[in-house]
Amino acid sequence: MQDRLRRTIGLLIVAMLAIPTGVGASMEWTDGLLDDCSATGLQASIGTSWEAVLDNDRGGRSSIEIESGEGTIRASGKLARGSLFGGPGTAGIMLPLATDGGEYDINQWDGIRVTVRRSGASMLLRIHGMEIENGDHFAVDIPASTEFATYEFPFSRMGQVMSPQMPWRGDRVTAVELICWSFPADSFSFELDSIEFYRSE
Questions:
Q1: Cα 176 from chain centroid (whole Å)
Q2: Quick one: how far is CA 145 from the chain centroid?
Q3: Predicted local distance difference test score (pLDDT) of residue 134
Q4: Considering its fold, how many domains does the chain have in total?
Q5: Mean pLDDT in each 10-residue stretch from start to end of the chain (201 residues)?
Q6: Which of 74, 90, 109, 117 has the least C-beta neighbours within 10 A?
Q7: First to last CA, the chain
Q8: pLDDT at 19
Q9: Checking phi first, is residue 18 left (phi over 0); if not, alpha (psi -120 to 50) or beta?
Q10: Whole-number pLDDT of residue 5
């Protein structure tokens, strides 16, 4: 029971991380490809750049190292929460869809496809939406795999971790995020090969 409570509290805190801000009406997102990880550095195919997401602003002591090359973005690090009663350690990467915090309607797409391999601490793929005021954005777990694997996650399969479930809207999306988390001190590593929105056949 105690472990279940700790996991629930941890997921709630993960859900409240990194709430982007933006103003104005949403625009239609026209290109499904977000990043094929072929560019130099952390710049994505859409022109914005991946950013590190850490728990340091709430007392955490997690760390992450990010590098790119040979068609992948590679990240590794350690998760360490700030205190006994604090939330989980968290670290990951986030890709804003626009540099000005703009919001987009992605409803012409049916889901998000990611090719990745990862090990260590648990990982969530999250889609940030401006209509989510408490930071509990739509998310889905990414399985661990020692080899690259491609996963297709329909938006209908993604949900809020702790909140009463809101219906998917998808008309005010600002960013996508890969976030690792753990209560005990833990390590993680992952390699991202590509990420894109897709339409069902």
A1: 5
A2: 17
A3: 83
A4: 1
A5: 50 48 64 93 95 91 96 97 82 94 94 98 96 88 97 94 86 96 96 97 74
A6: 74
A7: 43
A8: 40
A9: left
A10: 43
pLDDT at 99: 87
3-state secondary structure of 58: helix
pLDDT at 31: 83
Find the domain containing 42 and state its range.
2-198
Residue 41, token pair as written in the block: 């550095």
8-state DSSP, 85: T
Q: What is the pTM of this model?
A: 0.86
Would you state the structure tokens that stand for residue 140, as one six-digit string?
């889905």
| Angle in degrees, CA 179, 14, 7, rounded to 5 | 110
Residue 160 corresponds to which tokens in the numbers above? 């809020």
Q: Which amino acid is at 127?
A: I
One-letter amino acid at 188 equals F
CATH number, domain with residue 120: 2.60.120.430
Q: Phi and psi of 101, rounded to 5°?
A: 75, 20
The pLDDT of residue 3 is: 53
Which DSSP category does 140 fall into?
E
Residue 88 tokens read as 């989980």
**Whole-angstrom Cα distance, residue 34 to residue 127?**
12
Q: In the prediction, which pLDDT does 40 show? A: 83
Q: Say if CB 79 and CB 182 are below 8 A apart.
A: yes
